[in-house]
């Protein structure tokens, strides 16, 4: 296994449990991007502000809040979640799972052959490339010389800058704008295509309004045309509308690239620097021994989805190696079917955005007979109890021909807690008439399920 992030660890674990001897190669920290530079530190940066805002939104608790956010305490708490970028405990877990850990840079030098800093390893059955992705830096004049931040710098910063320019409108950009503005930076965000593209349009609209209320300077519909690091160590960003923004730092969050450029893929006839194209068992097309799991295959760039793929890949590698029967039908044990139509995702802005499956637009483009049902989350008794200023919206996307949900989106405080029920409904293809019998507790925000079904009507 090349890459000992959360996904690589799980591929190795499932293959080991399946009866194989596994070596796990890592050039950086065991635990990877999610543990040290993405999921965990980013959410730690956001959570303190989220908790403070929640208290201020409830009468009685609001009056008890007498202080402001302790920024250094937030950074210290973030550091605790990354174990101060020390991977000792994760390396111990690998050893305890019976997996051999090899530290160094891995290069594929032949079929089933991997060379790690001069040491040649030959796999009996398979090699899995689980190398993840890295930040894309757009080709903007002066940008690279301006020493831009990527998501790694934003989540590991030791000091909050007075001002920050963020380029991009996706999850990383929206979350870091939320975090840094509340941690005391003056944030400007430039997003050529708006916010949270690919989500339901109302999700981006709610986040846009929330960021504006926080004081973020939103520049939507524009992009950088030139970036200069000045002699005073400031960043001067010229935008496509002719305006100029001067900040202490610039964070680029405009997409991801696969970490395959120095993997040695050219040695086995695969184009380096490209995403690995795989089938539903995560086997790279054109091979019978190379697997691509997690971000590197570009199916769903999410840790939880990568770990889901890892289970399927680890088990199918072991099954093929030992000649065991495969379950490769849709939703079988050895395939990653959910990657196609049931991917859950949470954006931890204020408000949160939680979604699973297809948007209405995506479903229509697939030729599905779509019916959309919307409901104002603020109208629920449970919402008004949770917050005196609750704002939110819910949407389900129904396949009318089959009377099942194919997508759901929730926007509002703590709506991530609603997501798994929606995921089960989509994955399980639970008929609408059966969902009527899943009674939500009152008064909770889960009552949204009853209200959505009421609005839909009896099938």
From TrEMBL:
Which Gene3D superfamilies does this UniProt record tie to the protein?
3.30.390.30, FAD/NAD(P)-binding domain
Cofactor(s) listed in the protein's UniProt record: FAD
**Membrane-spanning residues:** none
> InterPro entries annotated for this entry?
Class-I_Pyr_Nuc-Dis_Oxidored (IPR050151), FAD/NAD-bd_sf (IPR036188), FAD/NAD-binding_dom (IPR023753), FAD/NAD-linked_Rdtase_dimer_sf (IPR016156), Pyr_nuc-diS_OxRdtase (IPR001100), Pyr_nucl-diS_OxRdtase_dimer (IPR004099)
Q: Which superkingdom is the protein from?
A: Bacteria
Q: Does the keyword Flavoprotein apply?
A: yes
**UniProt keywords, alphabetically:** FAD, Flavoprotein, NAD
**Which residue range or ranges hold the Pyridine nucleotide-disulphide oxidoreductase dimerisation domain?**
343-449
Pfam families, from UniProt?
A: Pyr_redox_2, Pyr_redox_dim
Q: Does the keyword Flavoprotein apply?
A: yes
Residue ranges constituting the FAD/NAD(P)-binding domain according to the UniProt record: 2-304
Q: Which family does it belong to?
A: Belongs to the class-I pyridine nucleotide-disulfide oxidoreductase family.
This chain's protein is named NAD(P)/FAD-dependent oxidoreductase
Organism for this UniProt entry: Frondihabitans peucedani
